[in-house]
Specification:
70% strand, 9 strands, Porin, mainly beta, eight-stranded antiparallel β-barrel, 190 residues, 1 helix
Length: 190
């Protein structure tokens, strides 16, 4: 089992066309990831991951929130399967690389004058490249830096704007986006 946290930076486009940049909606986020799985041998870890990211809005969306007096909070969630290869599994310093695939959702929660609303996009995360080094402090605990790059494509949208009707459907002009994450990884029972 492992826990990861640090900072995640949005890149790419949530959808095609002008204004569809991730940085036009999402600011950097603080991610919290949990990895759970097992090792069929000492070099391979196979398991799943579940992550939540918390942050603010950016760009045009932040300008709209600020000018209308609306409190806006961005949240992202992702989950999927992963495989990791541990290069020196019995060493005090164990470098590792990994790959994952899964599903993700990113959205913004809005509150204004006692009314709430939200907008969200979700879709397939088709590549989550990761790597790092675990420094073993004991037989049951390790800590070290990690770096990951998640690549995905939102396919569906949903919006409920401050008490108005809910709209949902397919994103017609799909684009590729990324989340670049870096931080610390805490490993239990490596």
């Amino acid at each position: 089992m492992a826990l990861r946290t640090g900072i995640s930076i949005p890149m790419g486009k949530a959808e095609g066309g002008s204004g569809g940049d991730m940085s036009n909606s999402f600011a950097w986020q603080v991610p919290l990831f949990v990895e759970i799985g097992g090792k069929p041998n000492r070099f391979l870890f196979i398991g799943g991951y579940l992550g939540l990211g918390f942050g603010g809005t950016a760009g045009d969306l932040q300008a709209i929130c600020s000018s209308s007096g609306t409190t806006c909070t961005a949240i992202s969630a992702r989950g999927g399967f992963e495989i990791q290869y541990h290069i020196v599994p019995d060493g005090t310093a164990n470098p590792w690389i990994g790959y994952g695939i899964g599903y993700e959702s990113s959205g913004v929660s809005m509150t204004s004058g006692g009314q709430t609303g939200s907008i969200s996009d979700n879709g397939f995360e088709f590549a989550n490249f990761m790597g790092g080094i675990d420094f073993r402090l004991s037989r049951t605990f390790g800590i070290g830096p990690f770096l990951s790059l998640s690549i995905g494509q939102y396919r569906k949208f949903r919006s409920e704007i401050l008490g108005r009707a809910t709209l949902e459907g397919d994103i017609t002009d799909k684009a590729t986006h990324e989340w670049l994450s870096a931080g610390a990884r805490f490993v239990f029972f490596p």
